[in-house]
Amino acid sequence: MLKIFKVRVTPNSSVNKIVEQDNDFLKIKLTAPAHEDKANQALIKFLSLHFKIAKNKIEIISGQKSRDKIIGVYLPIDKKSKKG
To answer: Distance between CA atoms of 59 and 73, rounded to whole angstroms?
Structure first.
């Protein structure tokens, strides 16, 4: 299942953490700098650890060169909520 998030990234922070979270919005601080794609790579790694999924299940849909991004996360389907 694809879940779409609006993400605001603050690079060059002292810690990697989510500072604000709503249904489809995340505000994230990252220690990585905002050049040479390092912050984007750090964001994908951070989100993969947060959601406990592989990095290839996360993609930056838009905002590669912006603090404001649209992120697609392919989350596993919860088998408990599936009727069958």
So the answer is: 7
Q: Which tens digit of pLDDT belongs to each residue from 12-61?
A: 999 999 999 999 999 999 999 999 999 999 999 999 999 999 999 999 99
CATH of residue 7: 3.30.1200.10
For residue 52, being part of any structural domain is answered with yes
Please enumerate in sequence order all residues whose Cβ is within 8 A of that of 12, keeping only pairs 6 or more positions apart, or say none.
30, 31, 32, 33, 34
Query: Which runs of E-coded beta strand occur in the chain?
Result: 2-10, 17-21, 25-29, 58-62, 68-74
- Could you identify the residue written with the tokens 């992120």? 71
The model's pTM: 0.89
